[in-house]
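Section 4.2 – Deliverable D4.2 (structural model, holo form)

The reporting period included a commitment to supply a predicted holo structure for the target in complex with PRP. Inputs used:
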Amino acid sequence: MTDNGILKVAMPKGRIYKQASKLFRQAGLPIPEDFDDSRKLIIPVPEANMEFIMAKPVDVPTYVEYGVADIGIVGKDVLMEETKDVYELFDLGIARCRMSVIGLPDWKPVIHPRVATKYPNVASQYFRERGQQVEVIKLNGSIELAPLIGLADRIVDMVETGQTLRENGLVEMEEMFQVTSRLIANRVSYRLKNTAIQALCDRLGQSMTVQG
Ligand SMILES: Nc1ncnc2c1ncn2[C@@H]1O[C@H](COP(=O)(O)OP(=O)(O)OP(=O)(O)O)[C@@H](O)[C@H]1O
Ligand SMILES: O=P(O)(O)OC[C@H]1O[C@H](OP(=O)(O)OP(=O)(O)O)[C@H](O)[C@@H]1O
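Output (structure tokens):
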């Protein structure tokens, strides 16, 4: 657990970082641009009394649960899949997309369909709640390949622009839920660093209201 005044922030590398750093800058937090394309994993942001820990998105809840980061930014998709013991504080409204059930347009129901996904827990719960028996196959990327090459009947994956589906002749069969990125906090940090965390939430909230 960190005990100095610096707020340690688990920041996802990749598509969320660009939007998150823009949001922080709009809120008046001076995130240096030199690090936007950097390979550095620990980035000091002394002017904002913060330190960014550059993490793989799926690992952000783990860093926050263990308290090596006080707060973190993570997609709702990852938060639902990982079910870590953290506080979800704030919907940042960035990295907007949706989780959907996807298949080939000529898909026909089968008794025990196979569903490929990066999100086995989310997918299992979704079909269980609907009384549908499926076999879930965990993949780590290029999920859209699975129905094209006969590994799975359907997939559960993220859709943003729909370009990946269009280019691969797939269709969205059901939208499961909307996804945006959330600010999460370690339970102990939330108490010990409440003033700093609350001040950050207020600044981000005000800036988001002004930006509309
Ligand atoms: N088109 C999209 N596809 C997937 N995730 C998206 C998309 N748009 C926004 N997101 C959000 O961005 C988050 C991080 O996505 P990103 O692709 O950067 O991570 P990742 O796939 O875990 O990274 P990596 O490719 O390094 O494994 C997702 O968890 C989701 O909340
Ligand atoms: O609707 P779109 O705008 O096309 O975005 C959706 C695609 O983006 C993501 O893949 P990503 O680029 O993260 O690659 P991956 O297959 O390695 O996960 C996601 O898994 C979809 O494949």
